[in-house]
Specification:
Structural class: alpha/beta
CATH class: Alpha Beta
CATH topology: Rossmann fold
CATH architecture: 3-Layer(aba) Sandwich
Radius of gyration: 17 Å
Strand content: 15-25%
Low-confidence stretches: 253-258
Shape: globular
Order of helices and strands: EHEHHEEHHEHEHEHEHHH
Oligomer: single chain
Length: about 260
């Protein structure tokens, strides 16, 4: 079982990238569970054809209890979709919400029941507080990959995320597997990202070209893998998925990888 956390600043294309990775791995015949760790709860929408996934926190709030059947929804190709959710705007801490959602999924034995080959954690990385660092800090994920571009704020966020991973690496938690460049056609973008990786102490795993197929497929509420499977962009996501499998650790166990 591989547990991969995909981090990146808001708006960098992290969720689109995660969904296409999940779709590509599912296409390979793997059983993939994608867990959205963003209070917007939109990580899995392309895998669900635009349908909303009931969030763990919303279900807890409305019903007082949660069953796995309430919050684990089957998506395209048989992938499994989960959204942690967050508090109502202005009423609580999103980081604490992620902690509560993770603890709920662990208590319910989600991994033991579904036995996925791969878990993809899609995590907002603008601020790596205790809750958003949960996949790193508590041993849920084995490997972290950071989505960035050549834009200054994206690179700044990538540096912060890398530092957070480094701070916990001594405890045997998640390791930094590398950077995914989601290109924005910034001048000298490859060189900027390479330079930042050198400063961070990592490398670029894969460069995703900026391509209109992504927007076309999002408008159709699907991944590129699902909407334009024969395109060069779909093949790029397949290559990325293979690289992540090659670079991630295969460890069995429960939600925490014990």
């Amino acid at each position: 079982m591989r547990r991969i956390a995909v981090y990146g600043k808001g708006g960098i294309g992290k969720s689109t990238t995660s969904a296409n990775i999940t779709a590509a791995m599912t296409e390979m015949g793997l059983k993939v569970m994608q867990i959205g760790c963003d209070p917007k709860s939109d990580s899995t929408r392309l895998l669900l054809g635009g349908r909303s996934c009931p969030t763990v926190l919303e279900t807890l709030r409305d019903r007082g209890s949660v069953d796995l059947d309430d919050v684990v929804v089957e998506g395209a190709g048989g992938c499994l979709c989960v959204e942690c959710g967050g508090p109502r705007p202005g009423t609580g801490c999103a980081g604490r919400g992620i902690i509560a959602a993770f603890e709920t999924l662990e208590r319910l034995g989600a991994v033991d029941r579904y036995r996925p080959d791969v878990i993809i954690y899609d995590v907002l990385g603008d601020v790596v507080c205790g809750g958003f660092a949960m996949p790193i800090r508590n041993g849920y994920a084995n490997d972290v990959f950071i989505v960035t571009s050549g834009e200054m704020m994206a690179l700044y966020a990538a540096s912060n995320i890398a530092e957070a991973v480094s701070n916990f690496s001594g405890d045997g938690y998640a390791r930094l597997g590398g950077v995914i460049q989601n290109s924005r056609n910034v001048a000298d973008e490859d060189a900027l990202v390479d330079r930042a990786c050198g400063e961070i102490g990592t490398e670029v795993v894969h460069r995703i070209a900026r391509d209109p197929s992504v927007q076309r497929c999002e408008a159709k509420l699907t991944t590129v893998i699902g909407g334009e499977p024969d395109s060069a962009q779909a093949e790029s996501y397949r290559e990325l998925a293979k690289k992540l499998l090659e670079r991630s650790e295969d460890r069995s166990g429960g939600m925490r990888g014990q």
